Amino acid sequence: MDCYANITLPAPPTVYDNCGVELFPTGPVEGTVPECEGDVTYTWTYTDCEGNTRQYVHTVTIDMPDFTVPADEQQTVECPVEGLTAPATPVVYDHCGTLIEPTLVSSPTTVECEGPMVWVYNYTDCAGSSHDWTFTYLIEMPPFIPPSDDGETVDCPADGLVAPATPVVYDLCGNPVNADLVTAPPAIPCEGTMVWVYNYTDCAGNSADWSYTYTIVYLPFAAIPPTTDITDCYQNIALPAPPTVYDNCGVALFPTGPIEGTIPP
Q: Model pTM?
């Protein structure tokens, strides 16, 4: 018999005393019922008019079949911390309808980034039938939101050689993502652009570049005050050395000329 609740007792046999009188039994008296599997006896007693007694014993062996557990489950989540949440375990009954409480076998350690995090529970009924049930969190981190490219306008190429402050970036799980320099610009001789490029790559391999562009726009250098001189004759004119002039970035400028104006009569 699979379950105690399913026991069906037979009709006790018809018994006669030695004079052919039919005897009607008392009972049955049930023996000790096992907690799970085992034998349980049922006893009927026949008594004749002289008080002679005989017993009829019927033994039922309870042998509980195995139970089944639901299929293992899994869920895809974004961050390892979500895999540390204990899953809701399924409700499982043994073959005879008794609730089986699950026992935690193992809980996962936190993965560094992506991968499986597995919870294992065991269900064991009173007969010793045992099955594990697992719940797997699959950690798949989505791409982070990259920062917008940036830049500024400066006066001199030397300003474009200053490494910019990189923006703070976090992956989708709140972990900071480091900025790695990809390229630094060479100095340009005058105006133009100087671009710094950095790369952000999270632990899952999601990657984005960020660039900072210096636009070099020279400002006019200061006006040069004119000088005068008085001489007696044209042929005695002695020209001065032109002044040393620097642009706004400190670069020395070398003049062309001189261009002579109209000579008076």
A: 0.76
